[in-house]
Amino acid sequence: MGARAAVTAAIEEDRQTRALVLVSFPLVGGKNKESREQTLLDLPKDVDVLFVSGSKDAQCDTADLANVMSKMNARSWLICVEEADHRCLTGRLAAEWLRDRDVNTRRCTLSWKEEAAEIHCSGWETHGEASKSDAEDIEPRRKKQKRK
C-alpha cells in the first residue's frame, strides 16, 4: 500500500513532490483485480517516477506497466528485478536513482539467482527516446551530494 499511498499524496494540490520511488506498485488489486492505472496517469508532468518491479509480481505485470508508463504525463523509469515477486528488495538502486537519474537511460534489469544468492545488474540502458526538454528540465533539480 505504500507505493499507492505515495502516488495519492503526490497528486494532492498542495504537494511539491518532485520524485517518487514506487517499489512493487500494485497496478492491479482487490478481489476483482481492478486496474489502478488512473492514479499513475493523474500524476503531473513535473514529477519523476522510478518503478521497481519484479518480473514475477502478480500485482504488476511489467508489460502492462510499460504500457501505462507510455501514457503517463510524468517521466518514468523502470528497474525490473528478474525472477522477483511482489516482495523484492531494491532500496539501494532506488537511492542511486534519486541521486543520479539520467533522462537518456530509462531501464535497468536485475537478475536474482536464489541458489547462489547473487544479483546481477544490467546497468541503466536506453529504453525509448528522451526528449531534449527532459534533459534540460532535470538539471536544476539535481543536487550535488558529497560522497564519502
From TrEMBL:
InterPro entries: AB_hydrolase_fold (IPR029058), KANL3/Tex30_Abhydrolase (IPR046879), NSL3/Tex30 (IPR026555). Pfam families: Abhydrolase_11. This is KANL3/Tex30 alpha/beta hydrolase-like domain-containing protein. Residues 123-148 are annotated as: Disordered. The lineage of its organism: Eukaryota, Fungi, Dikarya, Ascomycota, Pezizomycotina. Residues 1-87 form the KANL3/Tex30 alpha/beta hydrolase-like domain. SUPFAM superfamilies: alpha/beta-Hydrolases. Residues 126-140 have a biased composition (Basic and acidic residues). PANTHER family: TESTIS DEVELOPMENT PROTEIN PRTD, TESTIS-EXPRESSED PROTEIN 30.
